[in-house]
TrEMBL record:
Protein name according to UniProt: Putative calcium-translocating P-type ATPase, PMCA-type
Highest classification ranks of the organism: Bacteria, Bacillati, Bacillota, Bacilli, Lactobacillales
Keyword Nucleotide-binding: yes
Compartment(s) where it occurs, according to its Swiss-Prot or TrEMBL record: Cell membrane
Topology versus the membrane: Multi-pass membrane protein
Amino acid sequence: MMVLNTSQFSAIRGERMNKSELTQIDDVAKADLKQLLMQYHTSSNGLTSQAAADRLAQDGPNTIRNVKKRSEILVFIENFTSMMAILLWISGIIAMAAHMVELGIAIWAVNVINGCFSYWQQHAAQKATDSLKKMLPSYVKVRRDGQSLRVNTEDVVTGDLIELQAGDAVPADARIITSANLEIDESSLTGESVPVDKTPEYHHDQGEFSQDNMLFAGTVTTNGTALALVYATGMDTEFGRIATLTQGQKKVVYPLQRELNHLTRQLTIIAMVIGIAFFGLAIFFVHYPVANSFIFALGMIVAFIPEGLLPTVTLSLAQGTQRMAKRHALLKNLNSVETLGETTVICSDKTGTLTQNQMTVNHLWLAGNTYDVTGTGYVTNGKIMAGNQAVSLEQDSDLTTLIRIATLDNDTSVDEGTSNEKAKILGTPTEAALVILTRKAGEDRQALTKQFERLGELPFDSKRKLMSTITKTPAGNWLIYTKGALGSELAACDRILDKGVVRPLTEQDRQRIVAANEQYAREGLRSLAFSYREVTADDPLVGTKIADYTPQTAETHMVFVGLMVMSDPPRPEIYDAVQKCHRARIRIIMVTGDSPVTAKSIATKIGITSANARVISGDELDQLSDDELRQALKGEVIFARVAPEHKFRIVSMCQKNGEIVASTGDGVNDAPALKRADIGIAMGVTGTDVAKDAADMILTDDNFASIVSAIEEGRTVYSNLQKFLLYILNSNVPEAAPSVVFLLTRGLVPLPLTVMQILTVDLGTDLLPALGLGIEKPEPGMMDQPPRPQNSHLLNRQIIWKAFGLYGLVASIISTCAYFFVNYVHGWPNVALAASGSLYAQATTMTLGAIIFCQIAAAMNCRTQISSVFSVGLFSNRRIWLGIVVEIVLLGILMEVPLLQEIFNTAPLNSAEWLFLACIPIPLFLLEEGRKLLVRHLRVRSQS
Ligand code: ATP
């Protein structure tokens, strides 16, 4: 589902809704539900699969089309209208006017080639980004053929019955059939940020979207559950209609792009100033003709403007995000690549992110009995095997009650499929573990749900950490079944079921339960507590309508029944990932809803913290001042039994401590923290639509290790951009140096490199190996370095020094020597330097060749910052080698083809000259390897 800009919706909503549209929504809202179901040829069982398929074929997918896409031709033309391109167009005209027609045509040709290349890069980057979007389809629960199933949002059709719960995006316009505690965030349509209550009853205040029993696509469920009938999909929804009006939004410019734009602008200004200065000097100092001086100055300008920079960087970023996607991390915008490399702290959930989210119940605790259902103990048809003893459920009525609550106070279905398939879970792994246990215990859930009619529910929310259902027994009594975190349950209970007898819950009982629970938690096990309440004749709830049941009134005076304790082992790859974080000086802060003891046990087991780490619970956190919390966050700390709302504060205080924070989240209440974090990370498998929408990155496998891979990839992409920048900039110096020689000697030394040759290097041969640098693999030790300092610049002093003072200077000296070498062989200094003719062409060709061969060495040297290139594999980057080969072939063609010889002022080189060129890269490469070795050596010494 496309997400549009909220303010745009609000701004135009006054214009868009005419009276007839309002009436149409109102008609659906008011219609009799039975008739409405009939009108859409559906029933309480939903559509049949066949009817849904037919309707999909007829109405098309439930998607918002981009109706105002920018014309591809316009995008193409834009690549020929940049300042640099305009300069080249004008230069071409001037060259032609000054009777240098070939030069004029050549300049234009170079401009066209460069424009096409940029367009191709832009196109490739767009394709890469688009393919990422397709990798994360969104799903919705619908009822078809009487069964709940998950379908792709695009496949929702009119007449479908959708089942929504907190965190789900509303996929289409729909009329509510039933709901419980339903709250919808309609800010995307109305601009109103406070969620609104929705019920199946029709109430209509004045204004748009004010019908209480209607749901609109593009809005999200923030609380409760609902069953609703879809009456409009895709472009027929209100969202679709507005989208038509608001499409064609402004392009977003990311900070990295802004920095690059700024850099390009600065370099352009420098280039212009140098160009104008050279223009003046050529005319007045060297007495060069005006047109020639202009073309000469143009050479300087072209040399210094980094024209291919932005598209190449965008492509490199896009390719980086594709590589991350392969490692299960989808980035929603390219900008996050940069932030990933700066990350200093990861606030991570435990369940499912650090652990496998594969729950197995292995202990049952009741007041009068405990059952170990692991190892030799297990549950089998109607019996619990505890050691060698088989206990029938009928023998232990407390156990029967426990299993009944676990069965009925449960919204998850598990389709175990065939023996070769993994069980398909529609719901949460925690509840699935209960379903599997109760099934093994011989409970027939289907029959039981028919006998015990569900009247209503108080859905789970991670703040109160409880979930309740209200059920009618076959005898007509009402029962409230509750399950949840032990602390919340104990607060709700005042009685206990003990060997079939309900008695008051004493302080001693409480201590016994907590002690038993802690024992399990110390082993890293996670527990759920179960309770019930019978709404008897004297119960204050008697006479209360189900819709008016609230957690405050219903989840109190409960009877405590027992605990189900389950294991959720750490992910196997987590140990390595955590060690990697430690080496990369990235701290991990576990923020979990689970109990403090379980949290600490798991954190120490997987190496996140030592056993001395401080554990802060949600309640304690509420008591801490901001300063105290900031202090605590500087040390080893775990947050347990916290609500997602707490996460926002933790992230904010970390940021106040100067940290760059990545934070994970999956639920609807995690959204503020995900938005607040520098990198919000949502779970792709278990995450809600709301969390995914708020996040910057989505993990397609919910795995913490994928965050670490993404950080590694983020650091790599950024360092590759720096390598690329170093490579591009260092050739500017040898391109400019010959002109400086020409000027300083007042033309006594003829131009050692012609303008066309400068264009060849800058717009032709330079870019090919540079593309290869964009895909370099991570340098060894990349994750042994601390994170990049915040707000450090892509182009830093080190790169400037290396580009201009080291690589550039050396290449300038070598290329100038090459020029003089040819002249020397032909008699210089006894004869004057050739200013035209074949010797001049040969000498300039040598300058050009020397620059290209210096670039070959530079391409290799840029591959690593301080590691040896051999450690990443001399031939491991094929694209660089391909670029080098093409570069040499291109040079050969320029020398050998007569027409090109004329345009580029080139001449064939003899074998001695080729040998001279071939000798350039190896010493340069070995010298740089030596320098890197020295730097590594000094680093080790300074660290020891
Ligand atoms: P994490 O925050 O690391 O993902 P978590 O899953 O334990 O851990 P929450 O989902 O906030 O965190 O759950 C908090 C607690 O609520 C759990 O520890 C458990 O005791 C209880 N709980 C979890 N799921 C349910 C559920 N479906 N019904 C009732 N109680 C639940």
